[in-house]
Design a protein that fits this description.
With 383 residues, this protein is α/β, with parallel strands linked by helices. The chain is built from 15 helices and 14 strands. The chain has three domains: 2-86 and 258-287, NAD(P)-binding Rossmann-like Domain (Rossmann fold), CATH 3.40.50.720; 92-250, 3-Layer(aba) Sandwich (Rossmann fold), CATH 3.40.50; 296-380, 2-Layer Sandwich (Ribosomal Protein S8, Chain: A, domain 1). A six-stranded parallel beta sheet has the order 7-6-8-9-10-11, with helices on both faces. The protein has a five-stranded parallel beta sheet with strand order 2-1-3-4-5. The protein has a three-stranded parallel beta sheet with strand order 12-13-14, covered by helices on one side. Helix 3 (51-54) links the parallel strand 3 and strand 4 (61-64). The relative contact order is 0.13.
Length: 383
Amino acid sequence: MKIIADANIPFVAECFSSIGEVITVGGREITRDIIADVDVLLVRSITQVNADLLAGSNVRFAATATIGFDHVDIDFLRRNHIGFTSAPGSNANSAAEYVIAGLLEACHKCDINLEDQSIGIIGVGNVGSRVAKKCSALGMRVYLNDPPLRRQTGEVKYLPLKELYDCDFITFHTPLTFEGIDKTYHLADEGFFKSLKKGCVFVNASRGGVVDSEALKTVIQSGRMKTVVLDVWENEPNIDMELLEMVDIGTPHIAGYSLDGKISGMIMIYKAVCEHFGLSPKYGIEDFLPEPVISQLRREPSTGNEQRALLDAVRKIYDIREDDNRLRQIAEKPEDKRGEYFDGLRKKYHVRREFQNTKVFVEDRNSALAKKLEGIGFTMSEK
């Protein structure tokens, strides 16, 4: 069996070599010629999997090691009897932790206390639901918007979009869709931004096209936004440099890039490929996850501001400012090299672990700090 895989999927060669010959290439270098005689294609979000790529190839199974699959033409695969899988939920916790890191940094910069602040979560799937849980643990008032879920469940907790406009924070976690009643392309347009509460904190860690970049720039220039955190951009990797200068935190589409999430996604598609071809999987996630660099922390509720203690703990595990600093160095690159630099930040992304790998000791286990640390994902230690 011959397998072509995006080189940005960690340990993909080591894992998939148990079932075939693996060749790794850059995601943007996966072309029709390269995959012509391939049985299995493994990608991430930057590779468009459609007729232009697959027509006339021998590919029998395609997989994306991501939770989203708007870059995959599912109908084409189905019509041509090509198997497919994605990795739903694999990096959802990573993306949710990114949002928490962004919120804590934004609040530190603007001197906002998260307690009892309202947050509107648009899109309540694998990521959005985790963001909701973590924000609730921080004492925020959470409001949800997800029209498909509202129709499927009938639950009134999924509110109309207009009922989120008065929230102190807004965060997006939708797929990117271009048609139908739930179209999300440019959902955040001029009218949307004009409707938001003045002084709102805005976060997008879903897809760049969900936001109309020109409308966002206009509302930032107007002074109506308190803080903007962007992980995703229109026209990646050739991002809007003017917008990058305007936002408070900008990162290169890495919200879901924890090592835990990446390896989880890789194992999910590995098992799906094995099942499709009637093979027995040799590996599990435990075969590739290393020990965390920081396995223990100690926090003291009495040593100062509770929210600052939370921020310090999060920074020890994931300091979002470092990703922001790396992306801003793109301005120093020649214009024709900026897209390559953006992709390189993703391809060579540093090892980032999730909160649950670190045990935190707080003397008073019943303190608000201890409960919030546990609520956002840390493992509490008895000693």
